[in-house]
Amino acid sequence: MERLSDLDTIRITGVKINYLYVCERKLWLFDRGISLEKESDKVLLGKILGEYAYPREKKKEILIDNLINIDIVGEGEIREVKYSNRLKEADRIQILYYLYYLKQMGIEKRGVLNYPKQRKREELILTPQAEKEVVVALKRVKEIINQPHPPPVRKLPYCRKCAYYEFCWG
Predict the structure, then answer these.
(1) How is the chain split into domains, by residue range?
(2) In whole angstroms, what is the distance from residue 64 CA to residue 69 CA?
(3) N or C end: fewer C-beta atoms under 10 angstroms in the chain?
């Protein structure tokens, strides 16, 4: 099984792994420091929801190595709070990456995706197959961010709601 050190000590944030599954162009632009999410109402709503959805949780917002920002760390689990389950696969690979990263540090936990608005919860375990999926995703992120030019614009169902919409389509 490949490890992080085998990937040229690639340093990838959870956001970049998430963006790989959302939009490769967004990933490339974000890597170049073009961050338009700060202006997005949806992102602001998600942050507010994350702060207030689970007020009794003790450990919130844990940043590890300036790469992964875990919403909640609990007994035997890490949790990510998401505004919507519309980009479920992106959410899934992000938390699997967190589990993978923690495993490289000798920490094994399970992952939980919380969608409080929909009152849904999904548990994830880092299986050998999931580890392979994470390694493939890490390699793909590296390929994309090393390209000299951004990937071409692709019309996706959620483009109009994206913070980068005007940048790509304006």
Answers:
(1) 4-169
(2) 6
(3) C
**Secondary structure element (H or E) that encloses residue 156, with its range:** none
**Contacts (Cβ under 8 Å, ≥6 apart) of 58:** none
DSSP label of 75: T
Q: Is the domain defined by 4-169 classed in CATH 3.90.320.10?
A: yes
| Residue 128, amino acid | P
Residue 7 has pLDDT above 60, yes or no: no
For residue 5, pLDDT over 70 is answered with no
Side chain identity at residue 2, one-letter code: E
Given this model, what pLDDT does residue 149 score?
97
Q: Which H/E stretch holds residue 104? A: helix 88-104
> What would the 3-class secondary structure string for 24-51 be?
HHHHHHHHCCCCCHHHCHHHHHHHHHHH
Place of tokens 């005007």: 166
What are the tokens at 66? Answer: 């300036």
